[in-house]
Amino acid sequence: MTPKMLKHSTGAIYFSLLGVLATVDSLCVHLEELHSKLQYRQRVRYMKDYFPVNYAVKVHYEDIYRTINVTRMQNQNFTEMNLKLLWVYINSQVLETVLEVLPKRHPSRTYVEDISTLFSYLRMNVEEMVSDIEDDRVEEILSHVSDIDDESKRKSIRPKALFDNCYRVMKQLFQCDWDP
User: Fold this and answer.
1) Which residues of the chain form beta strands (DSSP E)?
2) Which of 24, 84, 101, 144 has a C-alpha 20 to 30 A away from that of 7?
3) Contacts with 173 (C-beta within 8 Å, 6 or more apart), sequence order
4) The dihedral sign for the CA sequence 174, 175, 177, 179
5) What is the pLDDT of residues 34-58, one digit of tens each?
6) How far, in Å, CA of 75 to CA of 175, rounded?
7) pLDDT recorded at residue 38
8) What's the predicted TM-score (pTM) here?
């Protein structure tokens, strides 16, 4: 390799890394905002206190994305990028499901809409990764999650539990500077 070629390839690597770091920084900005929205007191207030006792939402089995699922998938050699992608898409779908059942004037609606907006920004950040999916297992999960058939929604779960799972998995998958 000539010095000129080495200089050129070093510059390309530098700009590639710079692009990756910019994406990580912008992702962390949205995740930190999401982290503040998903604090325990807000989850209890908006997703438990404002709902009837034992209220549950019907979701797909795959929509329940818990830390134990992530650990199991890590043991099955899912890549970290695929786990993050699944987290974004599954929770986007969960938010849509919760918004569908909330009346327009429900006190929790603006809270859920704000979180949904943050997820739309996150989806834009990971959108380019979707075309790079090579794992059939991930594609299968995404197809189940995006299934709009109401009959396939067999699992009933409390809205707060869905938001708790979202928060815990976010903390497990992403390495951002979380405020205490």
Assistant:
1) 57-59, 155-157
2) 24
3) 70, 80, 83, 84, 87
4) positive
5) 999 999 999 999 999 999 888 999 8
6) 19
7) 94
8) 0.81
Most confident of the following: 1-5, 7-11, 92-96: 92-96
- Token pair in block for residue 154: 């067999």
- Chain position carrying tokens 């929509």: 63
Nearest to 62 by CA among 172, 153, 123: 153
CA 163, CA 94: separation in Å to the nearest integer?
9
What pLDDT does 180 receive?
A: 59
Place of tokens 């815990």: 168
Locate 133 and state its tokens.
Answer: 């999916």
Start-to-end Cα distance in the chain: 49
Token look-up 């991930």 returns 138
